[in-house]
Amino acid sequence: MATTDHSMIDMHPRPLGTALLRGWCKRCPNCGAGPMMSGYLTVREHCPVCREDLHHHHSDDGPAYLTVLIVAFMAAPLALWAFLAFRPDPLVLTSVFSIGCVGLALYLLPRLKGVMVALQWAKRMHGFGDET
User: Fold this and answer.
1) What share of the chain is helix, strand, coil (3-state, %, to 5)?
2) What is the pLDDT of residue 130?
3) Given this model, what pLDDT does residue 8 score?
4) Is residue 130 packed enough to be buried (19+ CB in 10 Å), middle (13-18) or exposed (0-12)?
5) Measured between alpha carbons, how far is 132 from 126 in angstroms, rounded to an integer?
6) Are 24 and 122 in contact (CB under 8 A)?
7) The pLDDT of residue 1
8) Residue 9 class from Cβ within 10 Å (0-12 exposed, 13-18 middle, 19+ buried)?
9) Domain residue ranges in the chain
10) Which of 56, 57, 64, 130 has the most beta carbons within 10 angstroms of its beta carbon?
11) What is the pLDDT along the chain (132 residues), one digit of tens a residue?
């Protein structure tokens, strides 16, 4: 006769939308008060406010991939539109879009990393669900 692991049944669901919003704001997905990051991309071992462990995350290349995907899908049509509408010098177009793409990527990268960590926390992935 098979036994049932009741520890997985008794866990309350974690709010995904709230966690993702807190992750976007680089805040702890559990309490929303403590900072998630200790540097530009370094995730803290635990939240300084609620002591929630955050070291379980495995974001790897996910945030970078999403950042490149978003920036490229925004920049390509805008560059085409700007070229067709204004016919700027190629050096000007390249310079403006290079600065814009780098700026947007630097803005998005830590926020998307926060979203990835918050998603893993909300879905209890990679050790975030272990109640020890």
Assistant:
1) 55, 5, 40
2) 67
3) 53
4) exposed
5) 14
6) no
7) 45
8) exposed
9) 14-122
10) 57
11) 444 454 554 478 899 999 999 999 999 999 999 999 999 999 999 999 999 999 989 999 999 999 999 999 999 999 999 999 999 999 999 999 999 999 999 999 999 999 999 999 999 998 887 654
Decide: helix, strand or coil at residue 27. strand
Contacts of 86-93 with C-beta under 8 Å, sequence gap 24+, read none
Sequence letter at residue 11: M
CA–CA gap between residue 44 and residue 53 (Å, rounded) = 8
Within 13 A of 73's CA, how many CA atoms are on the CB side?
A: 6
pLDDT of residue 132: 47
Q: Locate tokens 């600065």: which residue?
A: 99
With contact defined as beta carbons under 8 Å apart, do 65 and 75 qualify?
Answer: no
Query: Length of the chain, please?
Result: 132
Query: Are the CB atoms for 45 and 66 separated by under 8 Å?
Result: no
